């Protein structure tokens, strides 16, 4: 066995090192067992380094942990220890009995026929009394003899050298012995979701930064990408976990209604509004919906809870394939009493809501049981699981923090639950790798003016909401940096594979606007605001009615919303996850039939797909990857990359090429003998990697010897940049710097030409054009301001054509035209009924400054008559005034063609958004209301 084991261990080392002896042994520790109960084995081996064709006797003793079973090239190994054979190092041997570590004897089974004689091998790091000491047992007497002979040779060689070089051991001592992806604790999701290049050390031309750190970051990303591909290739082996997450602000009420629509799978309520855009969860704007119905049903407390059904009932209940496997219910404002703020430990309300939840499950309640709950004053997080799956969940932990009065009281804050889920393999002989699920129920500051406070509370919760891991770590003494005492190791809520977060959020629209939009039944959109919290979280498009605030005391509007409070979509369910799992959300709705509170409960259904691959096989796969790249930074070889070119002409582009940007390719090949990492760096410290107009699909990467990759270099264009380029030099040049870690830099010159268009241009500039904008060679050719035309020619051509040809077209300005045709019209001016109006809308929407200057918006909303509206136009610049008059004249003409009231409101909504748009970068409530701006426009078109 020794010769075979030597070959296995040799395969784990770098080519410059050699194994001369190896034995199999077991650590003297009753806790050192594999998942199947067998003891983990070790390979003990003195190693030597090759020098000039021979072998230097200076070496170390490697202790390599192996999975149980016979050694093979496919077994999972990890480096556990690396002891330099230095002055104080020693190995001693004694004969002993193997009984105490024989699994057969411990389990009561008859002992094997193998001889019971064993040898105890004690390894001491150095002569200090507190030095690390390792004791192992082995039966391999012949292998032990060879190992001790090699140890003596290394020891003698050490004594002959004045200053032996142990630097070659760095790969096994100071280097991680296994990839981070195999850690039992998932990495922080916030780090995984950041682009890799943002995690690298600062670097620029001539200043490479921390090469070892950067290599480690890029290598981890390389491994994760291949693991993701591996999981995708085995997608059919994913298990399905169905989760329903619900959130309900109960306003201090006890359960007096049936909760079945909230908890049970069934018919979802009809959508009240069309699907809305993805949003930044802490800021909302322009929303709409149509009336909804409310009602009450009989209290479930008068019905015997089905959870109390007997075993026969359970046998008769059939599970539906869409029944959730896990119910996670988040309650807020469970208890509003004054004494509750003192962290009351009473569970009366928790018990009542738990009972109501099981009653709502009806006959299906016998299939479920409570798994865990966590309450902090008014916040309760309750997890209910199907009984057949209870054994799949383990390592359940909970946590809570207050963030209310003085940042401590429990009236605001968060509760959280963390657990592992191991897929049920249904009799297969595999041990799947578990995934970690985390659920957070938070209650943040209310009211619009508390926007910044909510952001601060969110970040505070992220920092302080921690789970105890059960492990401890030594902290250094502040006096002498000597380990002094053990401190508990904690885990944050982002160290998970999937994170679900329920939260109460506010919105930034004035109350009058919200009610107006709800009653107008128009399709409007949630604005993408500044991201100050919940970055990288996902939320399903909102299609349900506002969940807050309804009332039954008579002071409500026609939709049932409290006249004293603003209707809002405050009750939200967000999620984020790693590449180790696949999460799909297929419902997101409120439940208007449950009316006991001023909030409606909200639910969301998810499918979580976790890999059912055998944990051992998965670890073998990852370890194979690690062996290829695990020692990149310690290699003595020089990395060598070759690029296909050092000059790239991207070509001509304009704002209109945003759908299909111009693109060129850069081929990179690793022509060296070792894996090589690379990254693009900036020319100067602190400067951007790329100019605004250029981007690549790869900023960093890793290539194995002989591998190559293609980096796509393309133009990118946005409204603000197009506006800037329209008034600057059209010729663009930039030098990309591709840095090879511990190698040379490559300089690639990229050139491009920007072609001006009438889009993203100021109206006053377009009015000074002497001819087509594409013919403009320099800004010096623009007409003097006093010779400018009264309105841009492009606008007048579009308006004249619309007035002549398209005023009676069905869906004009409301239904989108063919996108390709619209692009063609914008690019070359081809006329067509199906797209001219879209081109016109696009032109207005892309103006750097709207037709009505922003500083006049507030005045627009204050006008109360047609005369005052026309008087306000006197403050518009001349060009803007002419564009306004021409545009509203078209709309007035359309309205006069027997347009319906619904069509008029559609036109008003569309043109208000382009003639008097909101500032998308504003993080506060707009000073001009949507209702007021629309009223201003009506004075000109009716």
What does this molecule look like?
- It is a single chain.
- This protein has 942 residues and is an alpha+beta fold.
- It folds into four domains: 177 residues, PH-domain like (Roll); 151 residues, Immunoglobulins (Immunoglobulin-like); 279 residues, 4-Layer Sandwich (Deoxyribonuclease I, Chain A), CATH 3.60.10.10; 152 residues, Rho GTPase activation protein (Phosphatidylinositol 3-kinase, Chain A).
- The chain has 23 helices and 30 strands.
- The longest helix is centred in the first third of the chain and has 23 residues.
- It is flat.
- The termini are far apart.
The shape, in one word, is: flat
CATH topology of the largest domain: Deoxyribonuclease I, Chain A
Radius of gyration: 35 Å
Kindly, what is the distance between the CA atoms of the first and last residues, rounded to a whole number of angstroms? 95 Å
Whole-number tally of structural domains: 4
Regarding quaternary structure, how should these chains be classified? single chain
Give the helix tally: 23
Strand content: 25-35%
Structure classification: alpha+beta
Q: Spans with pLDDT under 50 lasting ≥5 residues?
A: 34-38, 49-58, 68-75, 100-114, 267-311, 474-484, 521-531, 828-834
């Amino acid at each position: 066995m020794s010769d075979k084991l030597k070959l296995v261990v040799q395969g784990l080392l770098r080519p410059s090192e050699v194994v001369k002896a190896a034995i199999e042994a077991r650590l003297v520790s009753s806790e050192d067992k594999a998942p199947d109960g067998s003891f983990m084995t070790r390979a003990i081996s003195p190693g030597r380094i090759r020098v000039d064709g021979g072998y230097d006797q200076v070496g170390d003793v490697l202790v390599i942990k192996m999975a149980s079973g016979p050694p093979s090239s496919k077994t999972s190994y990890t480096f556990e220890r690396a002891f330099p054979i230095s002055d104080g190092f020693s190995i001693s041997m004694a004969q002993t009995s193997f009984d105490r570590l024989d699994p057969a004897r411990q389990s009561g089974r008859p002992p094997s026929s193998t001889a019971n004689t064993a040898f105890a091998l004690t390894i001491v790091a150095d002569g200090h009394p507190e030095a690390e000491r390792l004791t192992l047992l082995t039966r391999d007497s012949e292998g032990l003899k060879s190992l001790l002979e090699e140890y003596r040779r290394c020891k003698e060689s050490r004594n002959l050298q004045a200053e032996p070089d142990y630097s070659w051991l760095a790969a096994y001592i100071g280097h991680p012995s296994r990839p981070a992806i195999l850690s039992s604790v998932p990495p922080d999701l916030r780090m995984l979701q950041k682009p890799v290049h943002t995690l690298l050390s600062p670097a620029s031309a001539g200043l490479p930064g921390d090469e070892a750190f950067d290599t480690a970051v890029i290598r981890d990303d390389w491994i994760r990408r291949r693991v993701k591909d591996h999981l995708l290739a085995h997608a059919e082996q994913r298990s399905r976990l169905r989760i329903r997450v619900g959130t309900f602000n109960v306003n201090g009420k006890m359960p007096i209604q049936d909760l079945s629509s909230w908890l049970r799978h069934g018919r979802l309520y009809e959508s009240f509004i069309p699907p809305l855009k993805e949003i930044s969860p802490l800021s909302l704007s322009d929303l709409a919906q149509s009336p909804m119905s409310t009602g009450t049903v009989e209290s479930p407390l008068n019905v015997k809870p089905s959870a109390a059904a007997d075993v026969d009932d359970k046998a008769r209940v059939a599970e539906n394939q869409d029944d959730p496997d896990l119910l996670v219910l988040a309650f807020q404002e469970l208890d509003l009493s004054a004494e509750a703020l003192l962290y009351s430990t009473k569970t009366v309300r928790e018990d009542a809501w738990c009972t109501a939840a099981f009653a709502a499950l009806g006959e299906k309640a016998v299939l479920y049981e409570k798994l865990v709950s966590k309450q902090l004053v008014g916040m309760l997080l309750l997890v209910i699981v199907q009984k057949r799956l209870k054994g799949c969940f383990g390592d359940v932990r909970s946590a809570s923090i207050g963030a209310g009065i003085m940042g401590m009281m429990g009236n605001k804050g968060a509760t959280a639950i963390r657990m592992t889920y191991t897929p049920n393999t249904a009799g297969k002989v595999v041990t799947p790798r578990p995934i970690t699920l985390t659920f957070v129920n938070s209650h943040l500051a209310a009211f619009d003016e508390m926007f910044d406070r909510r952001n601060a509370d969110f970040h505070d919760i992220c920092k302080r909401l921690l789970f105890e891991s059960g492990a401890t770590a030594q902290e250094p003494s502040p006096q002498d940096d000597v380990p002094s005492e053990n401190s508990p190791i904690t885990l944050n809520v982002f160290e998970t594979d999937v994170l679900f977060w329920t939260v109460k959020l506010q919105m930034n629209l004035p109350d009058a606007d919200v009610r107006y939009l709800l009653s107008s039944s128009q399709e409007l959109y949630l604005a993408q605001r500044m991201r100050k919290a919940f970055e990288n979280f996902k939320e399903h498009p909102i299609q349900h009615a506002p969940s807050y605030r309804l009332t039954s005391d008579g002071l409500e509007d026609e939709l049932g919303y409290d006249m004293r409070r603003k209707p809002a979509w405050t009750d939200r369910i967000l999620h984020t996850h790693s590449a180790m799992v696949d999460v799909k959300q297929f419902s997101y709705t409120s439940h208007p039939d449950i009316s006991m509170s001023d909030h409606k409960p909200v639910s969301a259904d998810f499918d979580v797909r976790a890999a059912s691959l055998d944990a051992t096989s998965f670890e073998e796969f990852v370890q194979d990857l690690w062996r290829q790249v695990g020692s990149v930074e310690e290699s003595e070889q020089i990395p060598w990359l070759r690029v296909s070119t050092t000059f790239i002409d991207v070509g001509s582009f304009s704002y209109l090429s945003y759908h299909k940007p111009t693109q060129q390719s850069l081929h990179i090949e690793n022509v060296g003998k070792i894996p090589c990492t690379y990254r693009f760096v900036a020319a100067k410290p602190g400067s951007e990697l790329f100019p605004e107009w250029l981007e690549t699909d790869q900023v960093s990467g890793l290539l194995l010897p002989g591998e190559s990759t293609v980096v796509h270099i393309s133009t990118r264009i946005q409204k603000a940049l197009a506006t800037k380029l329209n008034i600057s030099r059209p010729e663009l040049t930039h030098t990309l710097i591709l840095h090879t870690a511990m190698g040379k830099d490559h300089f690639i010159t990229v050139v491009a030409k920007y072609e001006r268009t009438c889009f993203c241009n100021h109206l006053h500039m377009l009015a000074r054009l002497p001819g087509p904008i594409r013919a403009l060679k320099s800004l010096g050719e623009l007409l003097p301001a006093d010779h400018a035309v009264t309105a841009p020619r492009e606008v007048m051509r579009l308006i004249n054509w619309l007035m002549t040809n398209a005023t009676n077209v069905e869906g004009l300005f409301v239904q989108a035209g063919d996108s390709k045709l619209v692009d063609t019209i914008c690019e070359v001016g081809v006329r067509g009924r199906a797209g001219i109006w879209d081109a016109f809308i696009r032109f207005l929407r892309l103006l750097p400054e709207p037709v009505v200057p922003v500083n006049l918006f507030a005045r627009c909303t204050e006008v109360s008559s047609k005369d005052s509206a026309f008087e306000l136009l006197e403050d518009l610049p001349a060009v803007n005034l002419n564009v306004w008059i021409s545009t509203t004249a078209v709309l007035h003409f359309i309205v006069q063609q027997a347009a319906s009231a619904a069509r008029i409101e559609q036109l008003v909504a569309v043109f208000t958004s382009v003639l008097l748009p909101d500032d998308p970068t504003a993080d506060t409530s707009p000073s001009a209301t949507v209702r007021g701006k629309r009223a201003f426009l009506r004075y000109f078109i009716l």
